[in-house]
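Summary: Need help interpreting a holo structure output

Steps to reproduce:
1. Submit the protein chain below together with the SMILES for zinc ion.
2. Request a joint structure prediction with the ligand placed.
3. Inspect the structure token block that comes back.

Expected: a single structure record containing both the chain and the bound molecule.
Actual: see attached output.

Input attached:
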Amino acid sequence: MEVTSISGTPSKDLEHLAITEKKCSSGKQRLNFIESLNYYVSEIVATTTLLKRTVGNQFAAVKEFASPSKPDLDQDRADIVKQKRNDQGCHECEVLDSRSEAAESVYQWSACTKNHGHHKFIPVQEFCLDHLPKWCQRKFVFDMVRIMLVLTVRLRVTYTSWERPKGYSFYNHRGSDVLHTGTGFVLAVVEGKGPCQCRSCTDSSSPHQKWYQILVHSACHVVFNTEEAQHTKVDFFYDDKTSRLTSLWVTQAIATDPLADTCTLLCATHEEALAEKLYACVRKIENHSQDIKMDRLSKDLWRLCVVVSHPHGQPKYVTVGRGLKKEAQSYVYITDTCPGSSGAPVLVFIPDDDQLKMSDTGDLSFVAPHSEWLPDEELNQSGWARCFNSPFVKYLEYQNMLRDGASFDTAWKQLFASSIKFPE
Ligand SMILES: [Zn+2]
Ligand SMILES: [Zn+2]
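--- attached output ---
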């Protein structure tokens, strides 16, 4: 007849109470019941308090994780960071104070107003075929995106050049050491000639002789010239918070084009495993290009636009959207991007044969660096597209074969003088 504890299931407890009450045939039993009921209620109160405290703690932990407190920068520095962030027009670099970079990056991610909650940003580890629209769930499309996930890199630039022209992004912050981040992608891996040009080898009396040049493509407003390039670090494989990064300093900007909003950077490494892993991916992209060429007749495929980027300097995320059109040599698309996405690879598949142009060498130029967000139309625009396995890369190889230490700047200019014939 006693009610001594709660079962944890309200309906069961109420049923039990009703039965107990019915069983009270005398005044004494009724008093006992009321006493038991008081005990029962006090237990509910105690349990609820405990539950509240536990849930409260959990909630506070979740809240702390979801909205980290703003890093404690000194006010002047914080103002400069904010001013630099706003001094880039519609471009999408993230700007952070290098003294508390990681904490600020997390804060900017959580405080983002452009894509609050980042619901459409898929962590690269979770990306699967179902994330593609039904009509383009094709294996080679999926594989192509997955390869791009490996080739995508984060760029951290710790110097803003005095050569940035008036009206150009970050003009008012020339000479500044305030960090800006962007995204880029590996375009090619070419064997180097002579001694290795990586930082540790150039400081060493016995530099490695076998080494590789890694060409990284991004947007010109992210890395404007060689001066900035030499203050730029490339982070490979930053897939999630636990990833083991491989970082390389850029040695030079071999080509920058403000009009096309593109830049091609050169990193040097004698790490064979790194070079091999990236080279294998570049080769796979080339092979997939063949598949895509074979598949040109299935027009319904070509409406997809995928961006892989490091929003707010955070690990890699994939966003899936739509390609709209090609304008001159850049693409227009609706796919979510955030500050930090500048220079990110934009994979665009567009249904018009004229727009899906093949270059003279048979390459498809469907990867371009993300350039800017056009807020009035809520559209994105890329810089000019460049090819994998491009003539530029072939020319680099050719240069390597014939003339050690040739000027890449000259190579680039000659290449686009359009009269160059490549060796068979
Ligand atoms: Zn965001
Ligand atoms: Zn080296």
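--- end attachment ---

Reviewer comment: Residues 360 and 391 are 9 Å apart (CA to CA). Residues 59-67, 351-365, 411-424 have pLDDT under 50 and may be disordered.
Status: needs-info
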